[in-house]
Request: fold
Amino acid sequence: MKVGKDKVVLMHYTLKNDAGEVIDSSDGADPLPFLQGHGNIIPGLESALEGSKVGDKLDVSIKPEEGYGERMKDAIQEIPSSALQGVDEVKVGMQLQSQDKDGNAFLVSVTKIEDDKITVDGNHPLAGQTLHFSVSIESVRKAEAEELSHGHVHADGQHNH
Ligand code: ZN
Reply:
């Protein structure tokens, strides 16, 4: 069975940046399950894996526009430290939950602290980066109807949430 829309795929993967540093990997863990064709993984990887089969090993490089997008200047904001009074100790690199004007929660990273001003960055940490994946396809099966209606994989095909 080949990887295609509405198939549940298990893959092992290693993700490196342009400098060749490992950013993320399933090494030593269970393979990552995803439902192909439902945006569970970034678009560039989904299209690269289309048509592959169990045992295939692929090396794929993905540009930002097919990955986590370009870095957006608008997503970087300076806020007064008084806006973070509920937080014990603010440090560079820490992630905070913020809300957009529609009330949706999203994560921002603290990138700079200066006197009473804090710079936060709402870009995805991998935005603007070309991503280099090494992937091996471990299994491919048809999705259950319930998985398709939820748009994600259930462990062993069972509903568990
Ligand atoms: Zn579900």
